[in-house]
Specification:
The protein is an alpha/beta fold and 296 residues long. It has a single domain, classed as Rossmann fold, CATH 3.40.50. The protein is 43% helix and 12% strand. The protein contains eight helices and seven strands, in the order αβαβαβαβαβααβαβ. It has a seven-stranded parallel β-sheet with strand order 3-2-1-4-5-6-7, with helices on both faces. Helix 4 packs parallel to helix 5. The longest helix has 29 residues. The N terminus is likely disordered.
C-alpha cells in the first residue's frame, strides 16, 4: 500500500491560529512515525557521510565480518574515523579484535566485538541474534573474511576443499542472508564484499581459493538484483596483495610484480577508503571494483 503524506502543515486556502497550527504539525509528525513503524514509509537514506561531531548514540552502525584481520581491521579504523559505530567480528583472534575495538573507541565511536565461525549456521545465527539484541540498527556490512590453502589441485584434500568453501563462500551466504533480512525490513543498507582478482584470473596452487572467490562474484551480482527493489546495495572489491597470514609465502616480492603496471601493490589506506566510499555511495550496486593496478 502506498500512502502519500502532505509534508506541509497548512492545507491550501486555509488559515488557523498559532495554537491550531502547532497541534496539526504535532499530529502530522505522529502520523509519520506510525507509518514508518509499520514500514509504510521507507527508511530515509543518508544523504551525507556522518560527521565526527555526531554522537555515538545517533551515528550509523556497520558490521565488519573478519574485522580482526588485516584488511578488516583497516576497514574498521577507516569507518570509525569517518564517524561510524563499528561492530567487529572475529573467529579465533580475540586479542586482535579487542585491539581494533580500542582504536574505534579512541575515535569516540561505539564498538563491540562478536565471535562466530562463519561457516557454521548455528554460530552465525547466534551472533546475529546477539547483535540485534544489543544494537538497535545496522546500516552497512563489509565481508572481509578469507581462508586460503596453497596447494595444487592433485594434492588438495577433500577436507581442505570443504573447509575453504565453508569459510569463504557458505559463510558469505549465511551472513549476507541475515544482513539482507535486516536491510530489507528497514528498506535500506549496503553490503560490500572483499573478493579477489584470483577468482577472475586463476592462479596455480590456488584452485580452491579461486573457485570460492569466483563464486562470490556471481553471488554478489545475483544478490544485487534480488535486493535492489528494497534499496539494498551489494558490491564487491578486489583489494590486491597485502602482507597477511592469508597471503603467507605467496605474497609477491619486488621482482614478482610484472603484472602490476605501477610495479607496486596497493596501500591498505587506499583499499579501506575505496571500500568506505563504495559502501556509502547511494546509487551504486552490483559492481565489482579492482583496487590495485593489475589489468583484467
Amino acid at each position: 500500500m502506498l500512502l502519500h503524506v502532505d509534508r506541509t502543515c497548512k492545507p491550501p486556502n486555509a488559515t488557523w491560529d498559532e495554537k491550531d497550527k502547532r497541534a496539526r504539525c504535532s499530529l502530522r509528525r505522529a502520523l509519520l512515525r506510525s507509518l514508518r513503524a509499520m514500514n509504510a514509509l521507507p527508511r530515509q537514506p543518508r544523504d551525507r557521510e556522518p560527521s565526527s561531531a555526531i554522537s555515538s548514540a545517533t551515528a550509523p552502525a556497520m558490521l565488519v565480518l573478519g574485522g580482526s584481520g588485516v584488511i578488516g581491521s583497516a576497514v574498521c579504523r577507516h569507518f570509525a574515523r569517518h564517524g561510524w559505530n563499528v561492530i567487529v567480528h572475529y573467529h579465533t583472534n580475540r586479542a586482535a579484535a579487542d585491539a581494533v575495538l580500542r582504536v574505534i573507541e579512541e575515535h569516540g565511536r561505539r564498538g563491540e566485538v562478536f565471535q562466530a565461525d562463519v561457516g557454521d549456521p548455528a554460530s552465525v545465527h547466534a551472533m546475529f541474534d546477539l547483535m540485534q539484541h544489543a544494537w538497535p540498527g545496522l546500516d552497512a556490512c563489509v565481508w572481509a573474511v578469507g581462508r586460503a590453502v596453497n596447494r595444487v589441485t592433485v594434492r588438495l584434500t577433500p577436507s581442505e576443499w570443504d573447509g575453504m568453501m565453508r569459510a569463504n563462500l557458505t559463510g558469505l551466504f549465511l551472513c549476507l542472508q541475515r544482513a539482507g533480512e535486516i536491510f530489507s525490513k528497514q528498506r535500506g543498507g549496503a553490503v560490500t564484499v572483499v573478493g579477489s582478482l584470483t577468482g577472475e584470473l586463476g592462479r596455480a596452487g590456488h584452485a580452491a581459493y579461486a573457485a570460492c572467490k569466483a563464486g562470490a562474484v556471481g553471488f554478489v551480482k545475483s544478490a544485487a538484483r534480488e535486493f535492489g527493489n528494497v534499496n539494498v546495495r551489494v558490491n564487491a572489491v578486489f583489494p590486491g596483495w597485502h602482507p597477511s597470514p592469508l597471503a603467507g609465502a605467496a605474497f609477491p616480492g619486488p621482482d614478482d610484480l610484472d603484472d602490476h603496471v605501477l610495479g607496486r601493490t596497493p596501500s591498505l589506506d587506499d583499499v579501506a577508503d575505496v571500500i568506505y566510499r563504495l559502501t556509502t555511495a547511494r546509487d551504486i550496486s552490483g559492481q565489482i571494483y579492482n583496487v590495485d593496478n593489475r589489468l583484467w
